[in-house]
Amino acid sequence: MNRYEFEDLISDYLEGKMTFKKIKEFESFLKNNEEYRILVNNVRNSISDLNGLDKVAVSNRFNEKLLSKLKNEKSININDDKNFFGFSPRDAAMFSTLCLFVIFLSYSLIDFENDFSPSLSESTRPIDENHQNFKSSKFRKGDNNFASDSPLDSLKKSDKKYKENKNNKIKFVNN
After folding, report:
1. Higher confidence at residue 163 or residue 116?
2. Euclidean distance between CA atoms 163 and 106, whole angstroms
3. Among residues 11, 25, 61, 146, which is most buried (max CB within 10 A)?
4. Is the dihedral of CA 69, 70, 76, 81 positive or negative?
């Protein structure tokens, strides 16, 4: 028996509307589960507390007076034509001003000139210009042979055929 089935059967058990077989099954379940026993006792105590309360007497015209007061109250019209997306005109103006201020503030705080990704104008520069910047770099030491130091024609695909390595050994090749 799961918790939902148990909760559905509590009121039937307390009111005595269960069959004898169902009562025995319910009580055996209560013996094995203390949490559910506490729940049944709490419901039983709540029912007895409610039955012990004094009844409240109202006048004969109570419902009529209550309905007349409710009709006389000013009702709140949510679907008013003067609202913009649920905002009154004053609130809508304040909200839109606040949104524009946040957009302006965020735009002024972002530094667009020092962006880390290259801009379109930088990516379309000729290769020679980047090549010379690398040659003048402070980090170059000695006469290292970098791919950027070689002429651009050396980067073209060579016509040499690839020979398959049948021995599965590493072969060192000189240029």
Report:
1. 163
2. 59
3. 25
4. negative
